[in-house]
């Protein structure tokens, strides 16, 4: 019974502190909406990510990779760009992002060419992603970009060291990629 009382008292104290804090700041500064008048048109971003194949693979996996992307805002809801990722897979993608309601959270779809060294496969890559783009200040262009994506590679499997592949030549490989990026907007 005392645990519940302590929990209730802690939540009440937290709510009281948040109310006092909200009275001392300008709510406009905390707005998560992307203000069309304050949009920065160009975004350059470097990313580090963790890579995990969803298909079975018998060899150990180096689970890290890096990427770079350029993005241009069309308005406060849409942006287009391009990205290059290097890790266990290599990808060159054209991307489009949708920011629902003008908030910094986005849905992304990237399409282009990809190569997966784990499965010795290359071909068409689709990269749906979910993430956010948070500015680290009103006046400076620094921002962070946490994200998760599920790259899907559809293509031909190539032979390893001259041996023909055991499975069919056409293959679909699915991976998981999650990470964070740091960039500059101007």
Description of the molecule:
It contains 1 helix and 10 strands. The chain has one helix at residues 2-24, and strands at 42-53, 64-73, 78-86, 89-98, 105-116, 121-132, 134-135, 142-149, 152-157, 170-185. Strands 1, 2, 3, 4, 5, 6, 7, 8, 9 and 10 form a 10-stranded antiparallel sheet that branches. With 186 residues, it is mainly beta. The radius of gyration is 22 Å and the shape is globular. It folds into 2 domains: 1-30; 36-185, Porin, CATH 2.40.160. It starts with a helix and ends with a strand. Residues 22-31 have low confidence and may be disordered.
Report the principal-axis shape: globular
| CATH class label of the largest domain | Mainly Beta
In total, the number of strands is 10
**What is the CATH-assigned architecture of the largest domain?**
Beta Barrel
Overall pLDDT metric: 78
* Helix content bin: 10-25%
Task: State the order of secondary-structure elements, H for helix, E for strand.
Answer: HEEEEEEEEEE
Major sheet details: 10 strands, antiparallel
Distance between the termini: 55 Å
Question: Given the structure, what is the number of helices?
Answer: 1
Number of domains: 2
Q: What class, by secondary structure content?
A: mainly beta
Strand content: over 45%
Roughly how many Å is the radius of gyration? 22 Å
Low-pLDDT stretches are: 22-31
CATH fold field value of the largest domain: Porin
